[in-house]
Amino acid sequence: MIKKEMIAMLLAGGQGSRLGILTTKVAKPAVAFGGKYRIIDFPLSNCINSGVDTVGVLTQYQPLRLNTHIGIGIPWDLDRNIGGVTVLPPYEKSTNSEWYTGTANAIYQNIDYMDSFNPDYVLILSGDHIYKMDYEVMLDFHKANGSEVTIAAMPVPWEEAKRFGIVLTDENRKITEFEEKPQNPRGNLASMGIYIFNWKTLRDALKAMANQPALDFGKHIIPFCKEQGSPMYAYEYNGYWKDVGTLHSYWEANMELIDIVPEFNLYEEYWKIYTKSDTLPPQYISGDSVVERCIIGEGSTICGEVYNSVIGCDVTIGKGTVVRDSIIMNGTVIGENSELNKAIIAENVVVGNHVRLGIGDEVANETDPHIYTDGIVTIGEKTCIPDGVTVGKNTVISGNTTLDDYDNYNLYSGKSLVKAGDE
């Protein structure tokens, strides 16, 4: 019988609605990040760097690009005969068929998959965080303490604590209390959504709580294990960790990659981040272009000026165009003599000549003021923007737009232009 000490279950089914137009056609873990990567590359790379060679990836929302990206796991050395990476979408069963309704429900529906490896431990991960962590060190901590449930946790600012599951511990890091998103937090050590369970403990908890609607780790499984008296410990993590769940945090995390001494370093020899790479020619940067503090992906052609930006693969930036503080994803073409300020541009977009993005005052967005914030211009994938238009801040554009869609060549700050079929 196959026996694995620890297997990982990677939750990658989320829609990521706070990323707005970026996730209408693609699951959040498949969104491009840092030029050539996708968000899911980070937890997958952590697995193989930590010696975890069996990973179940649970997909649900818009899984096509994610499935294509993961394939059979070759870039992460996860194409194994025994173990390796397996994509686990919801599937039809003889008695009842249901979507994954909560994080723990998704795990519960795959008990047979986990059983087939007869593991001692199961590592639960999220597919939408940017960080590097050696899960082997966390497992050693779990074993050393005789823990049955270990929660990776890190200190967060007090004012943000109510957004997280908060753990209260004694001096040995044993968890005395766990509060899911408390209104008045008594601590600021926040769960990172990374757990190691003894398989028997997890299996028993999933079966006992299976009938709970929207079965969730923070709301149901962890409180159940606590009630049962399972020893629980907090593994404190003090490295770089970013939940890129909002457009602003996504923009910020990309910008931090290009700091002179980046807090999160993509270039460490001993902890590589792996990804599926297309075979592309090298970058071409013309003689009269200017590039300062940028990441430029393979196959890109730069004929303009690019400052403080993250440019994906196979991007074209025309002559006379100036790009500042922006993220431009794979396959996008920017025309000539344009100006881009603090823009997030998704894949395969065409921006015309003499286009100006991010101009004017900040005004709250008219349709989703909580999503399109901080002066960012967000352009959805495969969008076309015609020549000569000026676009304000806190704006969103999606679809094949024409001059008729603009008010005298303008889309003013705070406006949303989403063509039918692109919601």
Question: Helix count, per DSSP?
Answer: 8
Decide which structural class fits the backbone.
alpha/beta
Helix content: 10-25%
Largest beta-sheet details: 7 strands, mixed
Q: Give the end-to-end Cα distance, rounded to a whole number of Å.
A: 48 Å
What's the total count of β strands?
33
Largest sheet, order of strands side by side? Answer: 5-4-1-6-11-8-12
Ranges with pLDDT <50 over ≥5 residues?
none
What does the radius of gyration come to?
Answer: 23 Å
Mean pLDDT: 89
Dominant shape = globular
Strand content: 25-35%
Give me a quick take on this structure.
The protein is an alpha/beta fold and 423 residues long.
Structure characterization notes:
By secondary structure, this protein is of the alpha/beta class. α2 (64-70) links the parallel β4 and β5 (84-88). The termini are far apart. It has a seven-stranded mixed beta sheet with strand order 5-4-1-6-11-8-12, sandwiched between helices. The chain is globular. The longest helix has 11 residues, at 217-227. The mean pLDDT is 89. Helices cover 16% and strands 27% of the residues.
Topology:
Blueprint: E1 6-11, E2 32-33, E3 37-38, H1 41-49, E4 54-58, H2 64-70, E5 84-88, H3 103-108, H4 111-115, E6 121-126, E7 129-131, H5 135-144, E8 149-155, E9 165-169, E10 175-180, E11 189-198, H6 199-208, H7 217-227, E12 232-236, E13 241-243, H8 247-256, E14 284-285, E15 290-292, E16 295-296, E17 301-302, E18 305-307, E19 310-311, E20 316-317, E21 322-324, E22 327-328, E23 333-334, E24 339-341, E25 343-345, E26 350-351, E27 356-357, E28 377-379, E29 384-385, E30 390-391, E31 395-398, E32 410-411, E33 416-418
Parallel strand pairs: 1-4, 1-6, 4-5, 8-12, 14-17, 15-18, 16-19, 17-20, 18-21, 19-22, 20-23, 21-24, 22-25, 23-26, 24-27, 25-28, 26-29, 27-30, 28-31, 30-32, 31-33
Antiparallel strand pairs: 2-3, 6-11, 7-13, 8-11, 9-10
